[in-house]
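Translate structure to sequence.
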């Protein structure tokens, strides 16, 4: 058998193996980076939920009193800010009732996009 032919055949096998490995590694790296982005997003959402619940608890401790707040920075979590709005509650079917609604919205930037999370609480007027 011709040894030149076998050398060329071995080089082709090596090139095919390298191509397959490159495709597999590219897929794995893409999956890992997507996972890291998802974990980061979930982390920020969890922080926003903690902030919103904490601010709602503070509002309840103040006996549901206080002014509206717009875009106030959260000291414990840099890059996060929150707003609080209080309004009369209107039921979709019944209409206005003697109740108020507080909405707390937490905002942050994630991958150069604005994100937010809101919670609301309805309570009777005093």
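Result:
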């Amino acid at each position: 058998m011709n040894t030149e032919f076998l050398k060329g055949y071995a080089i082709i096998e090596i090139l095919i193996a390298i191509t397959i490995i490159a495709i597999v590694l590219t897929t794995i790296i893409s999956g890992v980076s997507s996972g890291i982005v998802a974990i980061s997003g979930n982390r920020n959402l969890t922080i926003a939920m903690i902030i919103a619940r904490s601010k709602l608890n503070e509002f309840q401790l103040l006996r549901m009193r206080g002014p509206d707040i717009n875009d106030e920075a959260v000291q414990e979590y840099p890059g996060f800010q929150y707003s609080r709005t209080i309004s009369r509650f209107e039921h979709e079917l019944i209409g206005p009732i003697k109740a108020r609604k507080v909405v707390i919205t937490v905002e942050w930037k994630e991958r150069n996009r604005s994100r937010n999370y809101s919670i609301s609480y309805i309570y009777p007027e005093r």
